[in-house]
Amino acid sequence: MSRLDLNSIPVVGGTGYPEPFAELVEGRTKQALGDAGGLTQFGVNLVELQPGAASSQRHWHSHEDEFVMVVSGELVLVTDEGETLMRAGDCAAFPAGKPNGHHLINRSWGPGVFLCVGSRIPGDSAVYPDIDLRYDGDTKTFLHKDGSPYPPREPRG
Which range marks the domain in which residue 74 is found? Predict the structure, then answer.
């Protein structure tokens, strides 16, 4: 049977974002459901956002399709078109290579949970239109927009 036990899948927080961009996602945790199920062609994450937390910095991908569906709570989807309130059952899709920066923010009083599905295309890069940040999928590093690297993050403890 391929049923996954959510209670046995680790809940992880943190981010690879360099400072000062990590603060926006404090209060975000995820469970890597796809990894737990042995999936290799696409990722599936169950993500929880505490009040005030964002899913990511606003971004778009060069090669990776993304799909999100709100499972519970109330979240705000922010895209180039503006803001859209999303509740349980609401979905959004972001095709690869379409420069429409997006992320979810929890502006409510309680936690919000969403499912995120994304293709795992080698060499995928991400553009962050609002800040001096881009992700290079070939080197797996965060860079300034001018191409210079950010220093490695210091572990928090």
Answer: 28-143
